[in-house]
UniProtKB/TrEMBL annotation:
GO cellular component: mitochondrial inner membrane; mitochondrial intermembrane space
Broad class of the protein's primary localization: mitochondrion
Protein role: Accessory subunit of the mitochondrial membrane respiratory chain NADH dehydrogenase (Complex I), that is believed not to be involved in catalysis. Complex I functions in the transfer of electrons from NADH to the respiratory chain. The immediate electron acceptor for the enzyme is believed to be ubiquinone.
Organism of origin: Salix purpurea (Purple osier willow)
Name of this chain's protein: NADH dehydrogenase [ubiquinone] 1 beta subcomplex subunit 7
């Protein structure tokens, strides 16, 4: 399944996420990494020094998604500013310029 506007595909299916009891806000393109991380955490009794590799991989995936969204928003803002600037140049001024000013 492909997510529009993202370079990462959805790997985990809805059935896998429901079976692994992944909370709805965490069902994104990195959910396939969260499932083994949560299994490891549960098996290791949530000890913070365990499952470091799985946690690092999951957090890197989430970071990449955030950076991708930030880049997309920056492009949208630049396009809006360019659009606004082009409309401003061709607009009729509210205060007319006189010949003596």
């Amino acid at each position: 399944m492909e997510v529009p506007g993202s370079s990462k595909p959805m790997i985990a299916t809805q059935e896998e996420m429901v079976e692994a009891r992944v909370p709805i806000p965490y069902r994104d393109q990195c959910a396939h990494l969260l499932i083994p991380l949560n299994k490891c955490r549960h098996a290791e009794f949530f000890l913070p020094w365990k499952c470091e590799n799985e946690r690092h991989i999951y957090e890197k995936c989430e970071y990449e998604l955030v950076m991708e969204r930030m880049l997309q928003m920056q492009k949208i803002r630049e396009a809006e500013a360019k659009h606004k600037q082009s409309h401003k140049q061709g607009a009729i001024p509210l205060i007319p310029k006189t010949a003596n000013a």
